[in-house]
Amino acid sequence: MVAVHDKYEVKAYCRKGDQAGINVRHFEVVAVTSSGLTDVEIADDLSSLIASAYKPWMAGNAEYLGCTVQNQTTAPFPAPSVSTIGAGIGTRSGDNLPLQVAGLIHLQSANSGRHGRGRVYVPFGSEVFNESGAIVSTVGVVVLDAIGALWKGPLVLSRILRNTALGGCIKNRVSGVFTPITRTVPDDRWATQRRRSNFGRQNPIPFE
Q: Residue 18 gets which letter from DSSP?
């Protein structure tokens, strides 16, 4: 049974050709009605939301594959729940930019310093978002802003008489402490993720 203050790690998987783009984010349960949702239901609802946010960023030669959701409240952690709800190709026109080019979203919390900040490198953006000077177009920034809002939350996931609300967090890799995200800022400059280039290591997809 899910409880307030439970912690979750979510991995969203996208792919173009033989390269995978994996975004790893974290949530804390901020409210529960009745028994709340199961981990499988949380994974299904999150996958649907991720698909709706990510597919408009990608052209048709890239695809959203699905997500995994793992409760990381108390070790030993259970096996991740997997969902491919909403999986499919990108819906934006045009071709995709080079594999190492990514959209960038800055994450902020109430904590100062680098442990209070985070970044999301959004993979496989469409070339239609690229403007002269290597700038992300206004429309592209709007799409990134929607992705940032997804990871910030709060997200209310619902079934009949059962709800679970999730708030986005930044996880400190050293201490393991989860700090709520207070603001997300989409960048109008392209970022580089060399691990996604044609020469990068192929990231595995755990549910294929």
A: T
Report which DSSP code applies to 97. P
pLDDT averaged over 10-residue windows placed end to end, the chain, 208 residues: 95 93 97 95 98 97 97 94 97 92 95 82 97 94 98 96 96 86 97 65 70
Query: How much is the pLDDT for 176?
Result: 81
- Transcribe 171-185 into DSSP letters: E-TTT--EEEEEEEE
Place of tokens 């934006």: 92
> To which H or E segment does residue 104 belong?
strand 101-109
pLDDT value for 196: 57
Element (H, E) at 142: helix 138-152
pLDDT value of position 68: 97
Q: From the CB of residue 91, how many other CB atoms can be counted at a distance below 10 Å? A: 16
Domain spans in the chain, listed from the N-terminal domain onward = 7-196
Whether the ω angle into residue 186 lies within 30 degrees of 0, i.e. cis, is no
Contact call for residues 189 and 136 (beta carbons, < 8 A): yes
Question: Three-class SS of residue 65?
Answer: strand
Q: CA 15, CA 21: separation in Å to the nearest integer?
A: 6
Residue 137's CB is within 10 A of a number of other CB atoms, namely 14
Would you say the pTM of this structure is higher than 0.85?
Answer: yes
CA atoms within 13 A on the CB side of 99: 20
